[in-house]
Structures are given as C-alpha cells and as structure tokens.
Amino acid sequence: MKQEENIIVGISIGDLNGIGPEVALKTFEDPRMLEFCTPVIFASVKVVSFIKKQLGLTLNLNGINDLNKVVPGKINVYNAWNSGVNINFGKEDPVVGDFAIKSLFSATKALKSGQVDVLVTAPINKHNIQSKDFQFPGHTDYLAKELGGKSLMFMIHDDLRVGLLTDHVPVKEVANHITKKLIKEKVAMVMDSLKMDFQIAKPKVAVLGINPHTGDNGVIGKEDDEVLKPTLLEIREKGDLVYGPYSADSFFGSKNYQNFDAIIAAYHDQGLIPFKTLAFGKGVNFTAGLTKVRTSPDHGTAYEIAGKGEADETSFKEAVFKAISIFRNRNEYEKLTQNPLKLKQKKL
Questions:
Q1: What integer pLDDT is reported at residue 283 of this predicted model?
Q2: Among 4, 40, 43, 131, which is 20 to 30 Å from 344 by CA?
Q3: DSSP line for 160-175
Q4: What whole-number distance in Å separates Cα of residue 85 and Cα of residue 292?
C-alpha cells in the first residue's frame, strides 16, 4: 500500500483553451502543495510551458516520458503526446477537445495500473470532446466504464455533501428514471461512501422530493407517494438512517441540510443550484462508487476569462486535497474492515 506522504496525484489537463491548465498550475505554484503530494500532469511539457509563460507563472516543471521517472517534490508533466497544439484561449476547438481526451485516456490508464494513486480532472467542454473514441456525456460516465463500479456524482464542501438520484437526464424524463431499484442503489452508494470515504460510522441522509411540495398528497404528482416514500420506508426499516422526501424549495433555506451528513436530490439542478449557491468556487465534484478516487473542481472551462490570469484555483486545490483525504480514508477503512482471521494467517 502506498505511503501517504508519497501520494501521486494524476491530473488530466482538460480543455487547453479554458481555465483548467491555469488553475492546475496555480494550485502547485504554492510550494507547500508538494508537501502533500506529487503531481503528474498528463499533457505535453512544451504546451504546459507555453501556457505557464503566457500566464506569467514562475513554477518549475519536470518533463517526463516514463511514469517510472516521476520525481517526488516536483511538478511532473508526462508527455501524453508530442505533437504541437494551437492554443486560442476562450475558443471552442474540436482539435483541442481531442487533446483533452488524449490526456484523460492517458491519466486513466495510469490510474488503473496504479502508476498514479488518484485522479483530478480539469474541466472539459462536453461538446468538443465527442468523437468515435469518446461518446460519453462527460468524465463520470467514461470513468465508470473504465474503472468499474457504479458512479455517483457527489458534490462536497466541508460538511455539505449533495448526491443525485439522476444526473445528466432531461427534466422531462426525470420521473421515469426514478425507480425503486434506482433509489435503493443510490442510497446504498451514498451510505457506503460516507462510511468508507468520509469516516462517518452511522450516516444520516436526507432525500429531496421529486415534485414541488413532494406532490402535495398527489395533487401535483404521484411519484413521491407511490415510489419515493415507500422505498425510503423500506430502507429505513432495515436500519439505515435515511429520511424524506423533503420539499426541496425550503430545505436549504431553512438550513435543515445542516442536520444531515448528506442530501440526495432527485435531479441535477435541484441539487446543484443550492450547492453552488452555498459553495461555488470552493466545492468539489467527487465521483463516488468507483474503484479509484476521482475528483474535479465545481466549475467549467470558463472561456470568458481563459488566458487572462483571472481564474481562481481554490476549487481545484480543494479537489486535490479531497482526493488525498479520500484516498487516505479508504486505506484506513480497508485496514479496519479486513478479516482479522486473514490478518492473523498472514502473520503466521
């Protein structure tokens, strides 16, 4: 098992015309970060050096062609490609999208093989990455396929954690996607993540309703009464502390969210609008449920400020810290939950 002080953080570079490279480089411009981990940026040292110069940054880069040559305490840039790239900050470019995917593919391969311990993904443009080699809505679906397990989008900031029953689903299809099976699956994933990734022994989770006012006893919709409520009752009867459904319109404004270890929203905007209102620029997108740890900042490519040196690296830095913390928690959880008989046999 990896020594904690040598945790290697793989970084996919994201859209080169966006703010991803900037926030990644600014994060490690602070030399104290290298006391927590060793970063490996998957890109091209020539391209990253060009972006560094354009932004007036002063950090030193260590270019490598072999992941066995990673140098602890240095900002390593693994050459995932050798060809040149035309950088036009703020412009959507399918060619640049191809390089974002090359970076992601290379970083994911390293993660799967154990050459990096965790993955932090810089923002991509979901439109310009589509190709015959990449036909996914975004990072999460691709990583679920590659890493194994079932993915859960988990937005986290301090003690605020918001998961989703459905994520990238059109609003008109949300209710049809929310089944008894899905609810049980997502609640179980949230519970497992809270125990394993956040060291919460007996998690308490709130679930938000599907319809306004959780359907008002069927007046506004029947899904809450017929699907959500009975399923949550079943889960609760088995001993998990899961409550709801709660009316989403007042749940965050009343600060009720502070009484729970996590909140599960029915659909994307129901969960992410209040989360980003409370934590934007400091939150982290964590993909729970996978066999490896992946985090990302809570923002997109922000083309409008790309290349201007104005991007705030706080969320990316938090994504690095959270990845390290979750990695350590998982190692600790694994030790604590190992079969004591197996441990004894190993010692004999």
A1: 94
A2: 4
A3: EEEEESSSS--GGGHH
A4: 30
The answer to whether residues 66 and 36 touch, using CB atoms and an 8 Å cutoff, is no
Phi, psi of 278 (to 5 degrees): -85, -30
Per the CB < 8 A criterion, the answer to whether 39 and 48 are in contact is no
pLDDT of amino acid 125: 86
Please report, as a single letter, which amino acid is at residue 56.
G
> What pLDDT, on a 0 to 100 scale, did the predictor assign at position 146?
86
pLDDT reported for residue 9 = 98
- Output the six-digit token pair for 239: 């001993």
- Model pLDDT, residue 277: 94
Helix extents (H) in the chain: 20-29, 45-55, 94-113, 139-147, 174-177, 180-198, 223, 229-237, 248-251, 268-279, 314-337, 340-347
User: Residue 60 — φ and ψ, nearest 5°?
Assistant: -95, 140
Task: Find all residues with CB under 8 Å of 210, minimum gap 6, and list them.
Answer: 174, 175, 178, 221, 223, 224, 227, 228, 245, 266, 267
Which residue reads 């009867």 in tokens?
237
CB atoms near residue 153 (< 10 Å): 22
Do strands 293-297 and 118-121 pair parallel, antiparallel, or not at all (unpaired)? parallel
Question: Tokens in use for 179?
Answer: 């089944």
pLDDT at 137 (0 to 100): 64
Q: Which residue type, as a one-letter code, is found at position 98?
A: D
| Residue ranges, the chain, pLDDT below 70 | 1-5, 135-137, 339-348
Q: Give the angle 102-142-113 at the CA atoms, nearest 5°.
A: 65
